[in-house]
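User: Fold this; tokens only.

Assistant: Input:
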Amino acid sequence: MSSRERVLGRVRRALADVPGDARPYEEAVARDYLREHGRRSVPETVDLLAENLADYRAIVHRCADGQLPELLTWLLAAHGSQSVAVPPGLPPNWLKAVDATRVQDRAASTPPELDRVDSVVTGCAVAVAETGTIVLDGSPDQGRRRITLVPDHHICVVRVPDQVVASVPQALERLDPARPLTWISGPSATSDIELDRVEGVHGPRTLEVVLLSGS
């Protein structure tokens, strides 16, 4: 018996006592939970996002659309970045003043090659205020998942208020579950049994989020 047959056999046994006319899971599970906690204006929701991002040790910046190229140039220079990974659909004007070498997002790129890249700049799919979470879905302005997991420094641009939602249920409504979703709540971190925090184990050690208004 193959592993596949063994697993399917277990599933059949688990479902053996389920009536044939049982309601589908999507209908049987109540969906009457709160869609968001409390009532907030749009500016208050954006402020909550910034607060929770910072609580997760992300570095938060705010700027208007016309200030973004200058800000990104300053952030990369402050980090000492000599190279920056660039998704194929990143707006060209974002990095127009940056001197760092552009590293294009390629399927052939290996982890060791990306590990030598200093920074990556991306957009995002949606940002969740209540959890301080940024979601990437592999769209052209975000690129392949690997370019946001291997380099040590990630700058993520969030368009506000268009890409900001209050809660996870609202975020899920905007996302395609068939896409490669990456949920980011602060820089990568883990703790050992003695609760010593180590950053940069599963992704970027430094996460900077730019809340971009007027875009």
